[in-house]
């Protein structure tokens, strides 16, 4: 395929999805019914809903005017199976096979939407269309731009949504340095957790002289409670493939690796399919779009180790070794995969690249806060009404996230805290609900943006127990290479276990804090350096809960099983 | 050379670019403590004992792996640094058996001395879980014990085994708190491709890998009035044993060693050097025979049991290149229970043959099935230099004031050629001294064969011997051996004779030598070896009168029937992980014994 | 699939192709081991030895890798693999109770295989389906919003 053929394909492909974009289509279709085929919805039975819908449509003879499309996650996984009906974008939740008939007869035949299936907000109001929904109103979707809107592995639908426009632009009009400059200008910071400026990283690699360089996509997504990367890989794989190709052009690499965790079989499946399709049509492989630029991507499947998300461990794992981090410097940009200069970026980081190239770095930098530009994907989970996937401009307040988008805490319980950044992060208590979310503010509160996992806990959650949970996780996932993390996290966990069993003693908290600070200061890699954070942060805001466990031998939240009060250990 | 200037503890220092903070600090007399670091071999930043404060860095940095940078400001002794090191030590000790008093490394343990130096006062954790228990101790090998309870996962052993020996039969296994350094499938060292060289035991900072302690067996024999206990001492022990008593490495203490052994009560104290000379005669003749009669060349020396096990496992197809000579230890053992027993009129069943070796692999060698040509196990107990020192400390030897004594006859007399067996290149040099003169029937102009001396990994030389250009090569460490063997396999080696020693520097750097054994110490011991050679009245094996006598009295002639039976052996193709197909059970095959 | 296959001939072909592809190349270690795990359900010792020989990786490293990654198993596994998510979202929504019930029903602790090799029970950290927590999968099939009460009913579907 060459540039002209790409534009030709785009023109026809665009026609076919115009209806979804609110434009007048030239074909016969009056409706596009999008059925969410994301992992959440699949597991809750969207397959049956889909079949029932198809049958109903056929039986009413509507197959030529109603197009059924299976898409990726629409964002409200808690309410699956979800379907969206275009052109208006009516949003139906928890659609059972029995509901198919009514959707067809009422909506698709008579144009009357089915109110009982629409989203009902906490205040009881009905929000029938996407555009009406508070869940979507405050969102701004860049990385997730195609998720839930197009068929997951159709390269035509991707191209229709301006796919490969960025690559074409780069190959036709830009020098590698210009590409890097644009990314720098955007202010995009790595979405994998550390928030390092992506353009600066690319510049390092561009500046290296080497016979071989590599591009790596970090799709290990190990933070329990975060699933944005899974969604992008499953639902919009081409956006990552195109971006990695652009990255290859920008720094002078012709080989990329996508490291995807084993726990995401559908992501692996879709990504593989997409790679094959892209190769088939000449958008990947030798002489892309007829130019002399060649680039290919290989998938490496993670084998179940959280620490492999750490970049040097990930590289070791691609090289076939134990995923043990190594000291930096040298940084991967200088000596990375197989000892060669390597760009390693997170899935969501990659997903932001194409819009930046198309719309310019300034456009991206116009969103967000001063030091944290653009949009960030968060996964809302835990004790929250609308669990799911959201993308918001940096700087939105925690309250907006929890109350407006998340629909508040269910069951009439009170919000207690939001845990951000997973096992490396910390909790933010109710007092700080009005904090604008960005890298700096969360750090000041003793937490981090991290990968964007946001777990909401209510008054029924014991913070000591939660800290113990996270420490149990990091202790379990420690690679065991360095002393502070290998033994230190174990000792911290032992102390917490004692405390939650009512066997805490005076001095425990002091030792815990001393140990935590020591591990943070001396561990080899980010895992150990951040493992104590959940403990330190819960201690900072909920020290009284710890003390209740130790001194009064009670668990205020009633979670920990304590021996009867007064019983001496 | 580009340099970088930085400030460490308020002192400005200029060092080469690419140096680490550790190296820079050393330059101005600041010793940053380390545990996992080993120069050139292990720089993995794992133990975190060497952390320092670097201005502007978010966390503490490991000095052993952090390169210096222009204008860097480092603090090596701040409160944060001290607290962190102490906590790290406290953590290590919280997962460590508190049994220094009964540990082989008591008083020579890096963990122990660090704990003392850092002023560790208390381990504050309540009933801390232990990652490993006594059940995990690996006693399978006759040479080496692994006690994972004492392992601090510095991985120095893994690095040595991999990078120096090219074996890597141990590796990090499991992850997190359960991590352990072990052979695959939790097998014992005896059941995997370990060469028993003991290099791992030399570099282990703690008592997690040690020699098998056989001192009790020797005490028992010495205490038994019905046993005649004979001891032999290897060449490399005499330049190392004194270190155990606070003397400089390389101090030659042959006479004190003999005296000390007598104090322990051995009935006869003789010298492995005697059979080293004998080896030269047998091996020299074997070499001449191979050259003149068209045998397998290059011929490779066979006195290092670590090396022998290695070639049996990794290059079983090349076993025919090995000299069939037993090692000096085993020649000695075979002669003690035949020649010596006969001469002394002692029933060999009542002889206990003990050897003092620089080597852990010798313990394995002594137990090999085929080395029983005297009708008994030729060598009964092998003690390393370290074990001997332990016995001597037990009886309160005052090393400094020991007299110098001479070895007993008839196997105590030896030459300078035998002494140099202890250093890499020594066997080659000794052999050349003899082969040259046997072939040319003329004295060698300069018997010091300097091109094969020293610590370079592979050394080569070509010598004119009569009208023959003899091309020789010398390698020490198995990593270097591999390079030569690959050349042979590829048919690219035009050498006649190759010496291979398993351990870095040869036996002076053997796995049973005093700790520390590092490059500096090795060089000093090598210095001692050549000093001892020069001090010897006779420096060529074929001029040793006791050797001439034993051929006349007992052995007959070199490569003769009796020599063949007692002094030569065969080898077993083992394969690395399983028996190789298509190779005989032993090499040379046929009827050997 | 693999479960009915007795002689592994198809699988062996696939493995042989991988062995050929990565001959003498240690970088292929995890790829090859993942293929063995997939075709055999675990990592048989003889195949690991073969892997060490073919790729030129010390067996100790092969074993070190096998014991590092959770996806690799050195023992034969059950006919059905039950993965319970113990990620944060699932944890705060009650996964520990589901775990207790699973362990009770199967009579084993997580991380093990039942005596009759019917089930292997593993705990995983976030399946990326937190929206429908707590999540459990059996042979890859997803069971959303698990409760202790549902456990017996789900297990009964698998013989
Ligand atoms: C313990 C640990 C786990 C990590 N896990 C991930 C992960 O799952 N995904 C990811 O993209 N980055 C992860 N990171 C961050 C990476 O090391 C690296 O910074 C990132 O992939 C760089 O990409 P970015 O700049 O686009 O964020 C992890 C870091 C640590 C220390
Ligand atoms: S007992 Fe309850 S309140 Fe206390 S730590 Fe545990 S869960 Fe929390
Ligand atoms: S901090 Fe933990 S995960 Fe990181 S290297 Fe150390 S032991 Fe491994
Ligand atoms: S290894 Fe060292 S610290 Fe440990 S018991 Fe032995 S002497 Fe003591
Ligand atoms: S050092 Fe202390 S513990 Fe050790 S023996 Fe002496 S008094 Fe006892
Ligand atoms: S004895 Fe030698 S071969 Fe065996 S583990 Fe130690 S270093 Fe490796
Ligand atoms: S056995 Fe010794 S050298 Fe090896 S890792 Fe353990 S402590 Fe270090
Ligand atoms: S070189 Fe010496 S010490 Fe080392 S294995 Fe060989 S004989 Fe033993
Ligand atoms: S591998 Fe082939 S022969 Fe074996 S069972 Fe499967 S299909 Fe049959
Ligand atoms: S999977 Fe369907 S809405 Fe997320
Ligand atoms: S000596 Fe530097 S980390 Fe171990
Ligand atoms: S925490 Fe269980 S699926 Fe994410």
Automatic annotation (TrEMBL), chain A:
MF terms (GO), sorted A to Z: 4 iron, 4 sulfur cluster binding; FMN binding; metal ion binding; NADH dehydrogenase (ubiquinone) activity
UniProt keyword annotations, A-Z: 4Fe-4S, Iron, Iron-sulfur, Metal-binding
SMART domains cross-referenced by the UniProt entry: NADH_4Fe-4S
Record InterPro entries: NADH-UbQ_OxRdtase_51kDa_CS, Nuo51_FMN-bd, Nuo51_FMN-bd_sf, Nuop51_4Fe4S-bd, Nuop51_4Fe4S-bd_sf, Thioredoxin-like_sf
Domain NADH-ubiquinone oxidoreductase 51kDa subunit iron-sulphur binding: 464-509
Domain of life where this protein originates: Bacteria
Signal sequence range: none
Pfam families in UniProt: 2Fe-2S_thioredx, Complex1_51K, NADH_4Fe-4S
Family: Belongs to the complex I 51 kDa subunit family.
Family matches, as PANTHER family: NADH-QUINONE OXIDOREDUCTASE SUBUNIT F (PTHR43578:SF3)
Name the record gives this protein: NADH-quinone oxidoreductase subunit F
Organism this protein belongs to: Desulforamulus putei DSM 12395
Source taxonomy: Bacteria, Bacillati, Bacillota, Clostridia, Eubacteriales
UniProtKB/TrEMBL annotation, chain B:
Any single Gene Ontology cellular-component annotation: membrane
Entry's transmembrane regions: none
Residue stretches making up the 2Fe-2S ferredoxin-type domain: 2-80
Any one GO BP annotation for this protein: ATP synthesis coupled electron transport
Keyword annotations: 2Fe-2S, 4Fe-4S, Iron, Iron-sulfur, Membrane, Metal-binding, NAD, Repeat, Translocase
First-listed, main subcellular location of the protein, grouped into a coarse class: membrane
Gene Ontology MF terms in the entry: 2 iron, 2 sulfur cluster binding; 4 iron, 4 sulfur cluster binding; ferredoxin hydrogenase activity; iron ion binding; NADH dehydrogenase (ubiquinone) activity
Cofactor(s) this protein requires: [2Fe-2S] cluster; [4Fe-4S] cluster
Matching SUPFAM superfamilies: 2Fe-2S ferredoxin-like, 4Fe-4S ferredoxins, Fe-only hydrogenase
Gene3D superfamilies, alphabetized: 3.10.20.740, 3.30.70.20, 3.40.50.1780, Fe-only Hydrogenase (Larger Subunit), Chain L, domain 3, Iron hydrogenase, small subunit
Ranges where the 4Fe-4S His(Cys)3-ligated-type domain occurs: 80-119
Stretches assigned to the 4Fe-4S ferredoxin-type domain: 142-172, 181-214
Family indicated by similarity: Belongs to the complex I 75 kDa subunit family.
Record-given protein name: NAD(P)-dependent iron-only hydrogenase catalytic subunit
Source organism phylogeny: Bacteria, Bacillati, Bacillota, Clostridia, Eubacteriales
TrEMBL record, chain C:
Keyword list, A-Z: 2Fe-2S, Iron, Iron-sulfur, Metal-binding
Cofactor mode of binding and number, as noted: Binds 1 [2Fe-2S] cluster.
Single Gene Ontology MF annotation: 2 iron, 2 sulfur cluster binding
Record-linked Gene3D superfamilies: Glutaredoxin, NADH-quinone oxidoreductase subunit E
Residues the record lists as binding [2Fe-2S] cluster: 85, 90, 126, 130
InterPro entries: NADP_DH_HndA-like, NuoE-like, NuoE_dom, NuoE_N, Thioredoxin-like_sf
Entry coiled-coil feature ranges: none
Homology family: Belongs to the complex I 24 kDa subunit family.
Name of the protein in its database record: NADH-quinone oxidoreductase subunit E
């Amino acid at each position: 395929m060459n540039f002209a053929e790409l534009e030709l394909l785009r023109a026809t492909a665009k026609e076919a999805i115009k209806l979804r974009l609110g434009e007048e289509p030239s074909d016969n279709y009056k409706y596009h019914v999008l059925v969410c085929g994301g992992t959440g919805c699949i597991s809750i039975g969207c397959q049956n809903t889909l079949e029932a819908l198809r049958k109903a449509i056929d039986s009413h003879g509507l197959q030529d005017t109603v197009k059924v499309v299976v898409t990726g996650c629409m964002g409200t996984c808690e309410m699956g199976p979800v379907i969206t009906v275009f052109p208006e974008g009516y949003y139906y939740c928890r659609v059972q096979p029995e509901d198919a008939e009514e959707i067809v007869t009422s909506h698709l035949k008579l144009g009357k939407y089915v109110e009982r299936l629409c989203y009902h907000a906490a205040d009881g109001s009905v929000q029938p269309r996407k555009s009406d929904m508070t869940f979507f109103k405050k969102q701004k979707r860049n990385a997730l731009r195609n998720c839930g809107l197009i068929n997951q592995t159709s390269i035509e639908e991707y191209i229709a949504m301006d796919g490969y426009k960025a690559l074409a632009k780069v190959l036709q009009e830009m020098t590698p340095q210009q590409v890097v400059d644009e990314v720098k200008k955007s202010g995009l910071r790595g979405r994998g957790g550390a928030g390092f400026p992506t353009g600066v990283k690319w510049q390092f690699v561009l500046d290296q002289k080497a016979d071989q360089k590599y591009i790596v996509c970090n799709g290990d997504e190990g933070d329990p409670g975060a699933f944005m990367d899974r969604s992008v890989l499953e639902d919009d794989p081409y956006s990552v493939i195109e971006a990695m190709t652009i990255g290859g052009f920008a720094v002078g690499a012709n080989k990329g690796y996508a490291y995807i965790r084993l726990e995401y079989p559908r992501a692996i499946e879709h990504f593989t399919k997409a790679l094959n399709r892209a190769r088939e049509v000449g958008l990947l492989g030798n002489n892309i779009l007829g130019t002399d630029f060649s680039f290919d991507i290989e998938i490496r499947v993670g084998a179940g180790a959280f620490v492999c998300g750490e970049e040097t461990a990930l590289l070791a794992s691609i090289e076939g070794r134990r995923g043990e981090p190594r000291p930096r410097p040298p940084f991967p940009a200088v000596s990375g995969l197989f000892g060669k200069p390597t760009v390693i970026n997170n899935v969501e980081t990659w997903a932001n690249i194409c819009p930046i190239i198309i719309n310019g770095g300034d456009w991206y930098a116009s969103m967000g806060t001063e030091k944290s530009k653009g949009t960030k994907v968060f996964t809302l989970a835990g004790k929250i009404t609308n669990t799911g996937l959201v993308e918001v401009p940096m700087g939105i307040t925690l309250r907006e996230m929890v109350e407006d988008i998340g629909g508040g805490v269910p069951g009439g319980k009170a919000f207690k805290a939001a845990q951000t950044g997973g096992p490396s992060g910390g909790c933010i208590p109710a007092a700080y609900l009005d904090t604008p979310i960005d890298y700096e503010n969360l750090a000041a509160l003793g937490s981090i943006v991290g990968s964007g996992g946001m777990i909401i806990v209510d008054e029924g959650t014991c913070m000591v127990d939660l800290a113990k949970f996270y420490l149990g996780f990091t202790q379990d996932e420690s690679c065991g290479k360095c002393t502070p993390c290998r033994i230190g996290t174990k000792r911290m966990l032992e102390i917490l276990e004692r405390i939650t069993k009512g066997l805490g003693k005076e001095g425990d908290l002091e030792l815990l804090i001393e140990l935590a600070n020591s591990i943070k200061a001396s561990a080899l890699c980010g895992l150990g350096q951040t493992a104590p954070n959940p403990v330190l942060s819960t201690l900072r805001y909920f020290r009284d809960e710890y003390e209740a466990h130790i001194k009064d031998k009670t668990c205020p939240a009633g979670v920990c099983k304590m021996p009867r009060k007064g019983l001496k250990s | 050379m580009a340099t970088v200037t930085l400030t460490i503890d308020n002192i400005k220092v200029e060092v080469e670019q690419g140096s680490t903070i550790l190296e820079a600090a050393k330059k101005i007399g600041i010793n940053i403590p380390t545990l996992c670091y080993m120069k050139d071999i292990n720089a993995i930043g794992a133990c975190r004992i060497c952390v320092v404060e670097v201005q502007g860095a978010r966390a503490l940095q490991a000095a052993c792996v952090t390169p210096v940078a222009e204008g860097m400001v480092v603090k090596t002794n701040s409160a944060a640094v001290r607290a962190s090191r102490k906590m790290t030590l406290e953590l290590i000790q919280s997962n460590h058996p508190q049994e220094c008093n009964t540990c082989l490394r008591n008083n020579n343990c890096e963990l122990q001395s660090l704990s003392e130096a850092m002023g560790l006062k208390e381990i504050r954790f309540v009933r801390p879980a232990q990652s490993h228990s006594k059940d995990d101790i690996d006693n399978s090998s006759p040479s080496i014990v692994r006690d994972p309870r004492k392992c601090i996962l510095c991985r120095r052993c893994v690095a040595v085994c991999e990078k120096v020996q090219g074996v890597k039969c141990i590796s990090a296994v499991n992850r997190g708190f359960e991590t352990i350094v072990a052979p695959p499938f939790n097998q014992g060292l005896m059941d995997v491709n370990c060469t028993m060289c003991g290099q791992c035991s030399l570099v282990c900072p703690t008592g997690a890998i040690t020699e098998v302690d056989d001192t009790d067996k020797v005490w028992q024999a010495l205490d038994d009035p019905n046993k005649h206990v004979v001891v032999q001492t290897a060449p490399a022990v005499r330049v190392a044993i004194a270190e155990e008593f606070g003397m400089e490495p390389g101090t030659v203490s042959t006479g004190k060693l003999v005296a000390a052994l007598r104090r322990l009560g051995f009935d006869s104290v003789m010298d492995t050097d005697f059979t080293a000379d004998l080896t030269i005669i047998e091996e020299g003749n074997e070499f001449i025979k191979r050259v003149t009669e068209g045998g397998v060349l290059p011929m490779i020396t066979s006195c290092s049991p670590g090396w022998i096990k290695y070639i049996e496992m990794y290059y079983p197809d090349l076993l025919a290149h090995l000299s069939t000579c037993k090692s000096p230890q085993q020649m000695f053992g075979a002669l003690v229970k035949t020649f010596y027993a006969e001469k002394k009129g002692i029933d060999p069943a009542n002889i206990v043959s003990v050897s003092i070796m620089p080597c852990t692999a010798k313990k394995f060698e002594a137990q090999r099935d085929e080395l029983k040509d005297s009708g008994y196990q030729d060598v009964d107990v092998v003690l390393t230099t370290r074990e001997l020192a332990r016995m001597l400390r037990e009886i309160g030897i005052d090393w400094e004031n020991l007299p110098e004594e001479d070895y007993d006859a008839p196997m105590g007399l030896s030459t300078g050629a035998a002494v140099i067996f202890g250093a890499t290149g020594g066997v080659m040099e000794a052999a050349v001294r003899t082969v040259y003169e046997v072939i040319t029937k003329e004295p060698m102009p300069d018997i010091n064969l300097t091109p094969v001396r020293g610590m370079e990994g592979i050394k080569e030389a070509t010598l004119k011997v009569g009208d023959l250009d003899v091309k020789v090569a010398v390698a020490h460490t198995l990593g270097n051996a591999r390079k030569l063997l690959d050349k042979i396999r590829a048919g690219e080696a035009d050498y006649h004779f190759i010496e291979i020693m398993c351990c870095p520097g040869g036996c002076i750097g053997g796995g049973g030598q005093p700790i520390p054994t590092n490059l500096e110490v090795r060089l000093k011991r090598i210095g001692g070896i050549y000093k001892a050679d020069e001090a010897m009245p006779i420096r060529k094996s074929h001029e040793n009168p006791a050797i001439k006598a034993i051929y006349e009295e007992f052995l007959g002639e070199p490569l003769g029937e009796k020599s063949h039976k007692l002094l030569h052996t065969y080898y077993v193709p083992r394969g690395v992980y399983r028996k190789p197909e298509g190779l005989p059970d032993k090499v040379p095959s046929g009827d050997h014994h | 699939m693999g479960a009915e296959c007795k002689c592994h001939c198809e699988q062996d072909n696939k493995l042989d192709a991988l062995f050929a592809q990565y001959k003498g190349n240690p970088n292929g270690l995890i790829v090859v081991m993942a293929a063995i795990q997939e075709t055999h359900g675990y990592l048989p010792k003889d195949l690991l030895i073969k892997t060490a020989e073919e790729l030129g990786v010390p067996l100790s490293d092969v074993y070190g890798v096998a014991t590092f990654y959770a996806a690799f198993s050195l023992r034969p596994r059950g006919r059905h693999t039950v993965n319970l998510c113990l990620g944060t979202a699932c944890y705060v929504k009650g996964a520990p109770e589901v775990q207790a019930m699973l362990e009770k029903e199967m009579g084993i602790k997580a991380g093990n295989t039942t005596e009759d090799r019917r089930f292997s029970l593993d705990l995983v950290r976030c399946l990326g389906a937190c929206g429908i927590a707590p999540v459990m999968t059996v042979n890859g099939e997803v069971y959303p919003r698990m409760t202790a009460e549902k456990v017996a009913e789900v297990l009964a579907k698998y013989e």
